[in-house]
Amino acid sequence: MIQDEIYKFLNLNYKNQVEGLKIDEVCFGSHLTAVRLTDGSYGVASTLSGKQRHCTKQNRDFGDFSPLNIRNQSVKSLFETKRLSNAIDTLRIAVLNAISSGIISSGRYKVIEDKDPIELIDLREAGTVTIVGAFHAYIEAVSAAGSRLYVLELNRDALNEECRKYYVPAEDYAKVIPESNVVIITGMTLVNNTIDGLLSVINPETKVIVTGPSSSIIPDILFENKVSIIGATRIEKPELLFRLVSEFGTGYHLFRYCARKICIINE
Predict the structure, then answer these.
(1) Rounded to the nearest 5°, which phi and psi values hold at 54?
(2) Residue 240 and residue 235: Cα distance in Å, rounded?
(3) Helical (H) or strand (E) element with 104
(4) CA atoms within 13 A of residue 135's CA, in its CB half-sphere
(5) Which CATH number does the domain 110-236+248-265 belong to among 3.30.460.80, 3.30.200.20, 3.40.50.11590, 3.40.50.300?
(6) How is 143-170 classified by DSSP, letter by letter?
(7) Model pLDDT for residues 55-69, shown as the tens digit of each residue
(8) What's the pTM?
(9) What secondary structure, in 3-state letters, does 58-72 show?
């Protein structure tokens, strides 16, 4: 999986920065999850949620990475645990983003500040565009430019009525992505581990954008897998982050109050 490859890359190339790191603080919100590591770095990811099911007594979870058992866990144990949960998947991406934050700011990559990745492409010449996720602002921009548009989404109800004419069930990704000139992918696919399948059917000449709060990640592995631009987040007021997340904050609240948009470019 892409998230495992990214962790391996960090361990191989930045071992001194990763080794010994622990989770210092975490906050799971309805929309976003925030984490602070023991080196003082912050990361955020979209919260992966699922249907709440009644848990039988024998399946109650009090182990590692369950409530009150997350702080002081090592980053190594987070990626080596065999336990499976939405919380762990979410936490892994938030932690990867925290580790990546300092590396991205080091000057190694081409970074454009205060731009949304969609501003870096000419939509009038985009041809066929596939958007993965209910990005209403992107849908409106692409449709206004007259491009042919598909919107892949797990939940049709996530789209407003006007946007539903572009809806394609998410499981049909292999039917529309290969014919697309531009593919815009939500960073949530990093959290739910669906990005691998999406990238596997993209043509090499397609311009690929991965964007959203979850995609603020060291770009090397994504660049190796056909991604052209990463729309990322730089946390600038970490003192507001945990409160924002706990108060039902979403991506647009993040950019309003405590973060800056940046784009990482594959040169």
Answers:
(1) -65, 130
(2) 10
(3) helix 86-104
(4) 30
(5) 3.40.50.11590
(6) HHTT-EEEEEES-GGGS-GGGGGGEEEG
(7) 687 778 888 898 899
(8) 0.94
(9) HHCCCCCCCCCCCCC
